[in-house]
Amino acid sequence: MTSNVHLIDHPLVQHKLTLMRNKEASTNSFRRLLNELSTLMAYEVTRDMPMQEVEVETPLETTKAKVIDGKKLVFVSILRAGGGILDGMLSVVPGARVGHIGLYRDPKTLTAVEYYFKMPHSMHDRDVVIVDPMLATGNSAIAAVERIKELAPKSIKFVCLLTCPEGIRAMHTAHPDVPIYTAAIDRQLNEHGYILPGLGDAGDRIFGTK
Ligand code: URA
């Protein structure tokens, strides 16, 4: 079940996630922690980026050294909570391009309804990292991957903070080729589609809404 799932269990990631789970964490701390945690996750997610050797002149001599190869990476943020992860990722990959996909969860059916879609050009030449803090029912993630696949990018990864067995199963059934990067796999979903024990509504906690 956990094949193609990368659990990022670095102590700093786990520590920050625990602080975020606390219902007493302020909007300010929650946002800051999410930003820091996303920066750490970006490091793992970009580990296999292609490199090329270039010539560089140091103050002492000319040498060959590596730089990242190919077209700029694309982060696709699922609105609105994806923005919290996006900011942290952009702080370590500032040249990345950014796409947005607006999906809301129909509260009755829990299915994803698209209301916005804007992507960078030349998607077929790029690697894509889709970001959304919570992989719960998987409906939004699956719909987002489906839409991105229409643009035939070189690769797609999915990054979340938290997921659960139901979310992983749904995503793997629909898109077994898309690796999931997560900081934790929680116990289960409740009947309202929330992850237990989870951290509540990620969007509300990032933006201080209710
Ligand atoms: N979305 C959230 O924000 N929280 C959950 O627990 C599940 C989906």
Give descriptors for this structure.
210 residues, alpha/beta, Rossmann fold, 7-stranded mixed β-sheet, 3-stranded parallel β-sheet, 14 strands, globular, binds uracil, magnesium ion binding, transferase, GTP binding, Upp_B, allosteric enzyme
Please describe what this structure looks like:
The protein has about 210 residues and is α/β, with parallel strands linked by helices. About 30% of the residues lie in helices and about 30% in strands. The protein is built from six helices and 14 strands. A seven-stranded mixed β-sheet has the order 1-11-9-7-4-5-6, with helices on both faces. A three-stranded parallel β-sheet has the order 8-10-12. A two-stranded antiparallel ribbon has the order 2-3. A hairpin with a 4-residue loop joins strand 2 and strand 3. Helix 1 packs antiparallel against helix 2 and helix 2 packs across helix 3. The longest helix is centred in the first third of the chain and has 19 residues. The two termini are about 35 Å apart. About 35% of the residues are buried. The mean pLDDT is about 95. It binds uracil. Uracil binds next to helix 6. The site of uracil (URA) has 9 residues, from helix 6.
